[in-house]
Design brief:
By secondary structure, this protein is mainly alpha-helical. 72% of the residues lie in helices and 0% in strands. The chain has two domains: 63 residues, no CATH class; 62 residues, no CATH class. The protein is built from eight helices and no strands.
């Protein structure tokens, strides 16, 4: 999602100076932002920008990892449906592979395994077989 959000921001920043120097405001977790960064994000987010609209897709997708596993499938399917109707080509494009890989995503949520664990295992295997 962050890659898609940044792609949208970069396109829009070419025409809109207000988005310059805001990259990490959009990409960081809100809780990790300083108060100054939060204020800046809130002032820009309230504008009618494609980047702001894309950010509104990021937040619920982040919450997916916090919802109960029993409702995760319904939650993800609703997010994918919402993304497919967004009229934002980059968001629609993001939703398509998520729909194809929904079972794997739900398995990751249910097992609690995230990419950090997988990358750690990959690194162990790489060094073991060198």
């Amino acid at each position: 999602m962050n890659e898609t959000l940044d792609k949208i921001r970069r396109k829009e920043a070419r025409e809109n100076e207000i988005l310059k120097h805001t990259r990490f405001h959009w990409l960081k977790n809100y809780s990790d932002l300083s108060q100054k960064e939060r204020d800046r994000l809130m002032s820009v987010k309230s504008l009618d920008l494609q980047t702001s609209h894309a950010y509104h897709f990021k937040i619920p997708l982040q919450r997916l990892w916090q919802v109960n596993a029993s409702i995760a499938e319904e939650y993800l399917r609703k997010w994918i449906s919402w993304a497919s109707r967004s009229r934002m080509p980059d968001i629609i494009k993001l939703g398509k592979p998520m729909k194809r890989h929904i079972d794997g995503i739900l398995e990751a949520i249910g097992s609690g395994i995230n990419s950090a664990v997988v990358e750690g295992l990959n690194n162990k295997f790489r060094t073991a077989f060198k």
